[in-house]
Amino acid sequence: MRSKDYVNLGMVGSGMMGRYHSVAYSTIPVMFDTSIRIKKKVIADANEELAREAAERLDFEEWVASWQDLIGRNDVDVVDIVTPNDLHAPIVCAAAAQKKHVICEKPLALNLEQARAMHEAVSRAGVKHCVSFNYQKTPAVLHTKKMIENGKLGRIFHFRGQYLQDTGINPLTPIGWRHQSSRAGSGSLGDTGSHVISLAHFLLGSIREVTAMSETFITRRPVGDSDGEVDVDDAVSFLCQFEKKALGIFEASRFCTGRKNRFSFEINGSEGAVFFDWERSNELLFCNASAATSEQGFTRTVIGPSHPYGGALQRIPGIGMSYVDTVAIMLYEFLQSLFDRGKPHPDFSDGVAVQAVMEAVQRSASNKCWEKVCY
Ligand SMILES: NC(=O)c1ccc[n+]([C@@H]2O[C@H](COP(=O)([O-])OP(=O)(O)OC[C@H]3O[C@@H](n4cnc5c(N)ncnc54)[C@H](O)[C@@H]3O)[C@@H](O)[C@H]2O)c1
Fold it and tell me: What letter would DSSP give residue 191?
């Protein structure tokens, strides 16, 4: 039997993403052909009851209420940060100082300056780092990347990316950390728009300049018997030009009645085009521009065993993969990198680049003019 590569994990945060990451860690030794074994050592949550319950349910050996206690431990190799955005920077910087490898949820930081400081901290410490833009690991997206690299789409003219949800429409939804700039940095821009930007960077390269608009449709929301101010965007749209000259149109909104998780993109090139929508995440539409004109149009490919990671996660053709699988692929690649098998991707340099675009979008929305992205 192959010898095992053990990794001791500490997780900070036991909310929605804490659960998804936990399930993804459990998936890795089961579904991937790997020597990696993850020991879920300790989970931290400021809410003691949640921490206790999460340790039991998610199968961590111990729980603590203070993240400072977690990162100081000798038996933790990797710190996975799944907290609200305002805690990303302090936890990353403290964990890096303790020489822990770090995975941090997106968006990396509240702002560009903070993101750069985080990147500096992990680089100085010489630890491995990953920012959780897990949608990049969707097999259909990885396949699209290969098609672009192999010239299947030719010269790229257009990228059209959207992340549309309806989570903000009910005015009675209480205020939460996602509605406050001090805790989230921005609204739909950082929450879902950051995923679209990261994906565009991955597929098409850097964005040079942007022109944007944003709006907050519901400016006050209930807090107990009173109400509080929403000071982040509910929706943002922007145009951009990529360094390689392609034109981009982006939209992220929490106010799209009828849309649940429509994370979609279309790329139009000289040789072909692709369309993908996360609500149908096991399909990729492709138009081959060299087909006879009478046969041109988008045709449907069902993603399966012959696509990236299909051998591990979709052993039966047509069974489809899930959101958690994208997190598992990302974490698997990160853990492999700890044993010098590949590089973690996306890493904090990608997180900083996305933050730079977000900052240009915010500047443009407030100045009402084109803004260059300052990477
Ligand atoms: N990659 C994705 O697709 C994706 C999707 C949703 C959220 N996210 C990101 O994941 C992160 C967490 O989001 P979520 O939806 O899980 O939030 P959540 O509110 O469900 O969970 C956050 C958890 O952090 C805990 N927490 C708060 N302060 C803490 C502290 N000081 N110490 C320890 N724990 C503390 C809370 O008690 C809660 O359990 C955010 O950065 C968010 O942007 C990413």
Answer: I
Q: How far is the CA of 12 from the centre of ligand 1 (A)?
A: 9
Please indicate whether residue 82, judged by its CB atom, sits closer than 6 Å to ligand 1. Answer: yes
**245 CB neighbour count, 10 Å cutoff:** 10
Query: How many residues are listed for the chain in this entry?
Result: 375
Indicate if ligand 1 lies below 6 Å from the C-beta of 213.
no
Continuous segment of H or E residues that includes residue 350: helix 348-367
How many angstroms separate the alpha carbon of residue 196 from the centre of ligand 1?
Answer: 20
Strands across the sheet with 247-253, in order?
299-302, 283-288, 272-277, 262-269, 156-164, 247-253, 235-242, 207-215, 371-372
| pLDDT tens digits, 196-254 | 999 999 999 999 999 999 999 999 999 999 999 999 999 999 999 999 999 999 999 99
Q: Is the CB of 324 under 6 A from ligand 1?
A: no
Q: Model pTM? A: 0.98
